[in-house]
Structures are given as C-alpha cells and as structure tokens.
Design brief:
376 residues, alpha/beta, 10-stranded mixed beta sheet, 7-stranded mixed barrel, 11 helices, 19 strands, globular
Length: 376
C-alpha cells in the first residue's frame, strides 16, 4: 500500500505503508541510534512525534516483551529506509511490522531517511503528516492547521493516573555489590512525566524502594510518604507547558534531594529560576558525547530532547553547569550551591545506548544518604 509523508514546508515524500492504514499528524524528528528501536518507540518522551530512524536497516532482530520502556509505543508514526522482512534473534517474539500493527502505529518505508534528516538539520524540526488515505494537498492543509508541540500538555497524556510501587526482578549482581558497599535502602519517589522503565529499574538494582506518582502530585503529598529522595522523570513536550510540576518542584527545593532527568532537568532548571528554549532539531540518539565538568571526563550518552536550558545568568541563581555537550556546547547538567540536586539533560539509565553515565544514580543516592544523616 502506498503511503505519503508531507512536511509543513510543502515537502512530499512517497513510500510504502507499514503498520496500519490511516492518517497521523505530529512533529517530525530524527534519531541517530543504530539499535534500540523498540526502546525508542516505547519511550513516552516521543508522544506527539513522528520518528525518523537514520540507520538504513531497521527491525533485523524483531521485538520482544522485555525491551520496552513503557506499556505501549507512544510515537505517532515511524519513518525508515528499509524494514527487515525476516528478523532473527533468540529473543524474537514479533517482527517490528507485527508490533506496529498490534499497537495501531502508522509507518512508512522505502524513504531516503538521510536526505530527510539533512533537510531537518537545515530547516529544523517541523510539523508533518503521514497517511495512506488522503492526497498530499489535503494532508498539507491538515498539517498546517495542526497544533505545534509547544502549547500542548503532553505529559498529561502519558503520566500514571495513580501512584504505584514499581516492582521489577532485582539484578542479583547489583544487589550483592550493593551489600558489599554497605548501601542502605532508600525510598525514592519518581514524578511521572513520562518515565522510562529503566529509571526505576536502575534505582531498584541499587537497593531502593521506588514509588511512581502522577505528575500532578503535590509536594506535600510526596513528603507525607516519608520519601528519601525525588526523581523528576523524562517526558514529552515543552517543560513550560507543565507549570504544575514546576511549582511542585519549587516547593520541594531544599526539603529533599532531587534528581532531574531530561524533561525533569528542564523542569528543575525552571523551578530554580532559569529559562529554557526550543532547539533547532534537538539531540536524539545513543551517541552524544558529554563532558562532565565536575569529574573531568567525557561520557557517551543516550539522549532524546528538543528543549534545553538557557546558558545565561545561572551563577546569579546559585546554579553551576556540571555537564556540557561536546558537539554544540549546550548545557547537559546542573548542580546548585545550596540544594542537594543532580540534574542532567541526557539519560543515565540508557536503554537504548551506553551505560557510561549510570554512576550518576550512585551520586544521587550518596546525596540522599548524606541528607538522611544530616536529619538524624
């Protein structure tokens, strides 16, 4: 079946349909990861977006029931060059095509994804439409009248409706290592702005008890649970579209250790009085080099964000830049003179991508331990 992709600047791309038939609208973005497509598609941060994967062959190891970062895909559409028709893996459960059909996702294949990526690098991310039903002229009209991703509260579409205890089999190696290091069990609350499963997994493997709470949970409600630390998760959209989370975090400052990840990092920066802006095409991939200014080393990171913290007047607010993107110099992490916080723009939990920055969970839990000792 024929499918078309139409960008808001009038660019039209034709290909073959894969997934389900229909029409979908969203913001067109690209991800440069070579593997990890199932984790990408199930990352709630992609809500509202149609995703180009730049690697030319996708789907060669199929999909399974383990490599997921949420309970379903959140992308609005998939764009790939070639989709492997005969995947092979000992963990294979479904082909990627079957996976998309089961979850009602629209896809297009046979597209020059690298040309599309160069187009977005030149002109920036933009609204687009993907359809098997309507012609390009009609689809372009729909795209140009669709809402921009900024101005939509996409967090509300992906957050949990009620608190829940995250339960996952503990990695015995990590559990044993934790005992050797004398780690104490901490109660951690994650504010769910679109949390990836590997964030609570990373904390559980370090001996923590993790509760995930809705994005609209108040600061007082979190503190009443006698939690030892708070993580603000990743999530979709513009951080300024969730003022209720910003206010919650502002009320938590100085009252408990906080870790911000991706959207959570931007929300924490806004709560501290900094500003954010929309990037031209963002960082999405598993190969972004970041310099840790505090520890004097470079780590390769997994990233997925289209907004960043403004690097202006941070020192006046007590904010120190702790991490910087090696490629473009954008802020990738902050710390504070007075508050026990760790905040990073990238994903220390990886999935997909390298685990270089997983040590940041250990650093956060050290702050939690110090905070608890100071209270005793």
């Amino acid at each position: 079946m024929k499918a078309i992709l139409v960008l808001e600047d009038g660019t039209v791309v034709e290909g073959q349909s894969n997934g389900v038939a229909g029409t979908t609208l969203g913001e067109l973005v690209f991800n440069t990861s070579m593997t990890g497509y199932q984790e990408i598609y199930t990352d709630p941060s992609y809500a509202g977006q149609i995703v180009i994967l730049t690697y030319p062959l996708i789907g060669n190891y199929g999909t399974n029931e383990i490599d997921v970062e949420s309970f379903k895909p959140h992308i609005r559409g998939m764009v790939v060059r070639e989709l492997c028709p005969a995947p092979n893996s000992w963990r294979l459960r479904f082909s990627l095509s079957d996976f998309l059909q089961r979850h009602r996702v629209i896809g297009i294949v046979g597209v020059d994804t690298r040309a599309l990526t160069r187009h977005l690098r030149s002109y920036g991310t933009m609204r687009c439409g993907l359809s098997t039903e309507v012609n390009s002229k009609e689809l372009l009209k729909m795209v140009r009248t669709s809402p921009d991703i900024s101005g939509q509260d996409l967090v509300a579409t992906v957050t949990t409706s009620a608190p829940y205890r995250f339960l996952y089999p503990i990695d015995k190696m990590h559990e044993t290592e934790g005992r050797k290091r004398g780690r104490k069990k901490h109660k951690i609350s994650i504010i769910d702005c679109g949390v990836k499963y590997n964030q609570p997994r990373s904390l559980i493997s370090r001996g923590c008890e993790v509760t995930v709470v809705p994005a609209k949970t108040s600061a007082d409600a979190i503190l009443r649970e006698k939690t030892d630390g708070v993580v603000i998760s990743n999530g979709p959209g513009d951080p300024k579209d969730v003022p209720y989370v910003i206010e919650t975090v502002r009320e938590l400052l100085g009252r408990i250790p906080i870790m911000g990840i991706c959207l959570g990092h931007q929300i924490l920066a806004l709560a501290l009085g900094a500003d954010t802006y929309k990037m031209k095409f963002g960082h999405r991939g598993a190969n972004q080099p970041v310099k840790d200014m505090v520890r004097g080393r470079v780590v390769v990171t997994s990233q997925n964000h289209g907004y960043a913290v403004v690097n202006n007047g941070l020192g006046e607010k007590g904010i120190r830049v702790s991490h910087v993107n090696v490629n473009d110099g954008t802020i990738e992490g902050i710390e504070h003179d007075d508050y026990p916080i760790i905040s990073v723009q990238f994903h220390p939990e990886a999935s997909p991508g390298p685990m270089d920055s997983g040590y940041l969970f250990d650093e956060f839990l050290m702050k939690v331990s110090s905070w608890k000792q100071g209270k005793d």
